[in-house]
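Per reviewer request, we include the raw input and output of the structure prediction for the construct analysed in the revised manuscript.
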Amino acid sequence: MPRPSVGLVLALLSALTRTAPGQAPELATLVQPLSVPFAQCRLRASAVLKAQGYTGFLEFGNGWIAHARGTSASISCIPQSGRTVVVIVTAGGQLVRESRRLFEELRGPEPPPPSPADSTPHPAADASGSGWDATASGLDAHPGTRYTFWCPPHGTVAPVWGDLVYSSDSSVCTAAVHAGTLALESGGNAIIELREGRQSYSSSSRNGIATLARGPGKGSFVIVGRAP
């Protein structure tokens, strides 16, 4: 998809926003990574704008421009190095507040709290909760069970032991980056499957993450994917 020019976006926003003749509308711009594929981002952008009462849609290849409540907004989805970057520009009205509100709707709600009785993929972690320091420790008694961990954007590397099969005391989020299903900057939901403990875990370097070697572990996990 062609990337929209700044001039095109500004011209369309100006056309939809009521301003004095010769006066450019005030603009607010928000740029954030989004952990969904490009095509899904475009579908979400259209759905979010419609749900928020926007009308008069204009498509410009990477996204949409629409108008509501004295505010015009454009949502652009830009594929970049295996991820999607969202650019939201608002003119008139609430400006920054509106652009942030649209992004929160586009990103969707945060994962609900874990349900220990559910063996299907769901947000779960040890007592430390989700995050880049969260491990699968405490879940060792349930091999074969899958759990989903929430990894916030702009993560920090934490210790990992193993190579694609990781010890349960490893950082799940960092292991997901090592396995290639997540990126530190964008984060996302990492799905793991629990395995039996191993007598040893080897080290390796993948996707910018260097893991450590160690001896026996009580339990293991593998990264089986990412949730939208």
